[in-house]
Amino acid sequence: MRSRSRSCSEMSISLSASPSPAEREALRLPRSPPAAAPPPLVGALIESLSFRSCGFGRAASSAFEKEDLRLRVALPQRLRDALHAALKARDPSAGAFALEEAPGVGTAANPWFALAPEDAPENPLVAFVNPRSGGRLGPVLKSRLQELIGEDQVFDITVVKPSAFVEYGLGCLEQLADSGDHSARSVRNNLRVMVAGGDGTVGWVLGCLGELYVQNRGPVPPVAVIPLGTGNDLSRSFGWGASFPFSWKAAAKRSLYKAILGTVSCLDSWHIVVSMPEEGEEQELDLPHSLRHLGECTFYDDGTAEGELSETVCCFDGVFYNYFSIGMDAQVAYGFHQLRDEKPFLASGPLSNKLIYAGYTCKQGWFFTQCISDPELRGLTNIIRLSIKKMDSSEWEHIPVPSSVRAIVALNLHNYASGRNPWGNLKPEYLEKKGFVEAQSDDGLLEIFGLKQGWHASLVMVELISAKHIAQAAAIRLEIKGGQWRDAYMQMDGEPWKQPLSTEYSTFVDIKRVPYPSMIISGADR
């Protein structure tokens, strides 16, 4: 898929039929910036020149870059006010007052004005920051981003939800654009989004932006990442790094430049629906923000169900981008998240978070499964029936779950658990023997593998061995029968939850590919 960013050569082609030199000069004059503002090519000069070699010094270089960045991304004040008014009122039309100050609206404007609106930024950008991510770095990073691109364009994700921004903020820009505001149209069409947080936060924003496809409200803004989580596997996969560096002030500015200038890549996304018997337990579910309740729904059994089906079923759904898992690893992640919520001062950074993860793995008995009689530490084959659909097939195929497997992971990217590759780099002979294909992030397939117990998972994580390969699938159905299991632990993209199980009826997890791609900006371009 082509990047939405336009190169200089493309711009010159699109303007090849521009008006005469006199008309161009007439257009340029009223839009000339104030005398104190730097020329429009200052960004290119900053990128190509070494200020130290020119004798400017570090302070002058930083000042030039900061001013250039602000000029590139800052929305006009009237549009910023309109966005916040729409968000506050939860009504896209609350920002209609911005139309009164829009250049060219209601007058006989030159037709070429629509190609280059007077007050539209070259690279409009907004940022979402999760203050709970990155230990104590989230709030200070938010302040740094506000300093660089403006307070009105940086949102605390716990205050302004991405879904609200999509519905009311982008809806406001769309209404202004439909009313003839060319600057609002330019901002809406060229907008990019920076997300500072972990994989779960990035997935949350991507999922909300994906609703624009469903509502036929394109284009969908692409997303850049500042990695503040523990694993940061999505960030690693697209060149944004494993963690945010100690020199975070300079890194924030570099990340913003990458966000506005980087190329756009495609990423498969996967829709998950959990159908559970309606017995009142759904009221107790504490779901991640990336999942939503659908209420009572109808479950269609097409011959794969083996256990009893409840007459009434309630459902919840969501979208993931990297992985879904059930079992051992999800239980460890759930314990960590519970601790972080209760004692946030302990989870102060990626290193301490990983130590806590290791401690929970030991505490919950995953290294001593053979010596513990708890039925919930036994293999998943006791409760799970796995069915898949292969590429270009409409038929479900039952796949046996190895008896030793205590965690099942469906992986979309090459990175899992802080950059590990548990699927491994498989040889062509092995791929042919197993009927697999080489794994890609946009191939429409999930790699399904298993982890046996703590020792096996540890060896997989240090990449001494590969995980237990189970299947590659274009769609997945898990039937979960409770029995002695009271709960099953699940997670997607690092966001875990505890799923109650019925002793009488089955719970179903259905996963299928979303028919449209998600857009990620590459962080490895500059």
From TrEMBL:
Family affiliation: Belongs to the eukaryotic diacylglycerol kinase family.
Organism: Triticum aestivum (Wheat)
Keyword annotations: ATP-binding, Kinase, Nucleotide-binding, Plant defense, Stress response, Transferase
Gene, per the UniProt record: LOC123170046
EC number: 2.7.1.107
Protein name listed in UniProt: Diacylglycerol kinase
Signal peptide interval: none
Biased composition (Low complexity): 1-16
Family annotation (Pfam families): DAGK_acc, DAGK_cat
Assembly and binders: Monomer.
Protein's UniProt keywords contain Cell membrane: no
Annotated segments matching region Disordered: 1-34
Catalytic activity reported: a 1,2-diacyl-sn-glycerol + ATP = a 1,2-diacyl-sn-glycero-3-phosphate + ADP + H(+)
Function as written in the Swiss-Prot or TrEMBL entry: Phosphorylates the second messenger diacylglycerol (DAG) to generate phosphatidic acid (PA), another important signaling molecule. PA is required for plant development and responses to abiotic stress and pathogen attack.
